[in-house]
Amino acid sequence: MILTKLTGLRLLAIGLLTLGVGTWAGSTARAEAPTDGGTIVIGDSNGAPVEVPVALFGDIAVTGPWARATNAGSRVGGVYFGIENRSASEIRLLSVATPVAQATALNDMPLIDKVARIVPVEGGIAIPPGGKVELRPGGLHVMLKGLTSPLRPGARFPMTLEFSNGTSADVEVQIWDVGAMRIISQ
Ligand SMILES: [Cu+2]
Fold first, then answer.
1. How far is the CA of 23 from the centre of ligand 1 (A)?
2. Cross-referenced InterPro entries, in alphabetical order (predicted)?
3. Gap between the Cα atoms of 121 and 113, Å rounded
4. Are 32 and 170 in contact (CB under 8 A)?
């Protein structure tokens, strides 16, 4: 259902581009497949090494997208990854779409009066020029809302990231155990 909707939207976008309509062409360019940025080894919650892929989209490197598995009744999930901005200007992650969820949000979990609260990130997640940002449990994250099916350990799902420089990046998210922790930056 969601896949059909996305395909429909893309066809609509292509149709509009063909007609020469829309100055938003830059941000609706067809999603890019990454070039291979190799792998890096990170640590998991038990200190065990885990090899994760680095996907390159021009000046943007996306490292090891992962999600925690969800229980059958759960309708929400979280997705985490590292983003590196290799350009000389700030780039913002504006939005995320995936067929496994009806909606997504970019959230943070700051401590407010010593209590962790979920707050939306206004204007997208900014990655400074030459800088790195990591989405991780307890911090910045992609929230999946209205899961269309439970996230099962070992499975993967596709996700498209929209950046402020017009890059539309297709990545694969690996699902790990419910309590898993992965730390990408070291
Ligand atoms: Cu959230």
1. 32
2. LpqE-like, Lxx211020-like, PCuAC_sf
3. 19
4. yes
Q: Which residues of the chain have pLDDT under 50?
A: 1-28, 186
Q: Tell me the CB-side half-sphere exposure of residue 142, using CA atoms within 13 A.
A: 28
Length of the chain: 186
Q: What is the whole-number distance in angstroms between the Cα of residue 147 and the centre of ligand 1? A: 13
DSSP string across 43-62: EETTS-EEEEEEEEETTEEE
d(CA 129, CA 88): 5
- What is the Å distance from ligand 1's center to 11 Cα? 30
Give me the pLDDT at residue 21, please. 35
Q: 32-183 belongs to which CATH class?
A: mainly beta
Per-residue model confidence as pLDDT tens digits over 40-91? 888 777 777 888 889 999 999 999 999 999 988 899 999 999 999 999 999 9
Contact 60, 126 (CB under 8 A): no
What is the predicted pLDDT for the residue at 22? 33
Identify the pLDDT of residue 30.
62
Distance in Å, CA 116 to ligand 1 centroid: 11
Q: Give 117 Cα–ligand 1 centroid separation in angstroms.
A: 9
Between CA 170 and CA 173 the distance in angstroms is 10
Assign 3-state DSSP to the chain and report helix, strand, coil percentages, each to 5: 10, 50, 40
